[in-house]
Input
Amino acid sequence: MSAIDWTILIVVLAGLIAYGIYKSHTSKNLNGYFLNNNNTPWYLVLLGIMGTQASAITYLTGPGQAYTDGLRFVQYYYVLPLAMIVISIFFVPVFNKLKVFTPYEFLEKRFDGRTRLLTSFLFLISRGLSTGISIYAPSLVLSSLMGWNIYLTNVVMGGVLIIYTMSGGAKAVAHTQGLQMIIIFLSLFIIGYIIINMLPAGVGLKAAIDKATAHGKMNIITTGFTENGFNWKDKYNIWSGLIGGFFLALSYFGTDHSQVGRYISAKNVKESRRGLLLNGLVKIPMQYLVLMLGVLVFSFYLFNKAPVYFDETKQLQAENTSFAGELKLLEAKYNAAFENGNIDSATAMRSQYKTVMQQALNGQEANDTNFIFLRFVKDNLPVGLIGLLFAIIFLSGWGSVAAAINSLAACTVVDFHKKMVKSSSDENDYRMSQWYTLAWGIFCIGVAMFANNIGNSLIEAVNILGSLFYGVILGIFLVAFWLKNIGGKAVFISAIVSEIIILLIYNADIVSFLWLNVIGAMLVIAIGLLVQFVLAAAKKPS
Output
């Protein structure tokens, strides 16, 4: 990377850290640290919601996902506006009226303390693990760029995040996320424009899309149906997107405190709703833009030979094994197929190369999807743009991780610590919140240490992880809102049983992960009704 790229990268990142510290002054109490004293305007709510969801994973592996699998990933975003409407009508007024720090406080008022603790615990597990993966994504960039040890890089990345998250809480997170999203949006348009201009003369955007369409990459709607009927294991189709995606969105934006914390910090209900509803409108074209970068990269490599394997570090590792000769032969066949214009044959050679890589790496994951966009940037973007793109990845990673760590600390303090420790001064609560922020930051760094061997693309891995818990959490809230006849004991039992069933279904690989959100929510309702009936029957005099 050139001196100019390094300068752009360092200036942008240092500026953001300085800005976050500058904005970190807040009231030294829980309301100031976790809710920004309920003073967040709607536009920062909007940018905070988007920044929390759109982590470094989105910009690093989203294009790689589209490169390998086309645009069908976007199908589970189509129903997002409807989910935002439902949350704005039913969830936001309740959270605002009760003046909660976390959404799980509402569950204690509706059910009992153990249901609140269980739901908060499920959130802490899912968000803590996924945040670790989100730390790993920008670390991946830096380790690849510098050749640094990935474990050391995780510590560096996580440490920087902890600094301004501990110092400023929700206020620092809100303001830095706003600045991050503005820079990211502008940069994505610039990078997309550059890629189009890198295509051969006479090949514009339309021609590039036509090429991608011919290779099945513009699959914005897929049905999931095969000659054998509907494929329930198909990860992304219009039905899993509309149904599973709806339940996932309801749970993520309506019950996950990393998101709820962004809009309950707003000035009032109107500001919360405005931020949520605009997110529903803006997020879809934003996701299209990110995925389209991958489609454009695919089209670029139809005219320019792509690397036979995108992860340079693992490729060098494999070439120092006994499989080196076989890998060199496959690479030569790949190069020849491309030079002869036989794209299908080149693709087949690349698949064979990856299979041998798996053997050479002795069981390590050989999937290079997470490295496609990174490698393209390093090899092809002009001076200055490389530093800017890497800055985008860092900015997005820091924004989402900072919000997540802040929400993890909030739930730990409010839902657990203050339940066990008698009331103390605002100053002590504030200091304790900072210590919990530090603790969760260290935990997430620890999780990041194990993320380097994830087989799925990182963006898919995070969604799978969330889907293991989100459906059950959503089911608890749906019961709380609309099934008043189900009590705390029944919903507590149903939640535990439902979570066990969801884990068993996932382990058995029966359906794709998006359906787990639907199944989890429905199980909580159905089992809750059954348990409540049994409990009521047991109380009746014989």
About this structure: The first helix runs from residue 3 to 22. The mean pLDDT is 86. The chain has two domains: 3-301+379-449, 312-367. The chain is about 75% helix and 0% strand.
